[in-house]
Design a protein that fits this description.
Elements (H helix, E strand, L loop, with lengths): L1 H20 L5 E3 L18 E5 L13 E5 L4 E9 L17 E5 L4 E2 L4 E2 L3 E6 L2 E2 L5 E7 L12 E9 L8 E10 L1
Parallel strand pairs: 1-12, 3-12
Antiparallel strand pairs: 2-4, 4-10, 5-9, 5-11, 6-7, 6-11, 8-10, 11-12
């Protein structure tokens, strides 16, 4: 009897721990910094947004997963993945979620000053659906007439990554990118 109760207690504790570490079907807001894109609490094996290849903006408010610093009239590209290691990384195939991911902007690029979409800056994901062998690139272009934001985030866009296959199929990871125009 005692071993049955102990076994049941261990099973209950394990299921509560697994439930706390999983994200089943709901959106996941991911606070980040210019240095990494990860939730405050991270468990190896749980998918989170990660990026590689960018020089993060020197100052990125915590409400953004990452910040891009761009020059008017230029294009910018960054590579994102769904990482399953801690700290989050896109550097090796074993770091990356093994499944298809659908990437999309969930808002236009928004001018913070007006609260409206801007025509000066555009964002696009390539490919829109990626797998482990093809990380997604986020391409941002700006018109030469785009005004400087004085070193602060002046624009942003929200995006999502929906896990289409694998053990976390259906989960949606949400992110936000702040844009600083030099």
């Amino acid at each position: 009897m005692r071993s049955t109760l102990l076994g049941a207690s261990v099973a209950l504790a394990a299921s509560l721990l697994l439930a706390a570490c999983s994200n089943s079907g709901g959106g996941q807001a991911i606070p980040g910094s210019g240095a990494q894109a990860a939730p405050m609490s991270y468990h190896t094996g749980v998918p989170v947004l990660a990026f590689k290849g960018i020089s993060p903006a020197t100052s990125c408010p915590s409400e953004y997963t990452a910040c891009y610093e761009i020059t008017p009239g230029t294009a910018f590209s960054d590579t994102w993945c769904i990482s399953i290691v801690s700290p989050p990384s896109c550097n090796a195939p074993s770091d990356i979620y093994d499944g298809k991911v659908a990437w999309k902007d969930t808002t236009d690029v928004i001018d913070i000053a007006t609260g409206n979409p801007t025509k000066d800056i555009k964002s696009k994901w390539k490919p829109a659906v990626s797998d482990q062998s093809t990380d997604a690139s986020n391409n941002v272009t700006s018109k030469s007439s785009t005004p400087s934001t004085g070193g602060a985030v002046g624009y942003y866009f929200d995006f999502s990554a929906t896990l289409k296959t694998g053990s976390y199929k259906g989960d949606v990871l949400d992110g936000a990118v702040g844009i600083i125009v030099e």
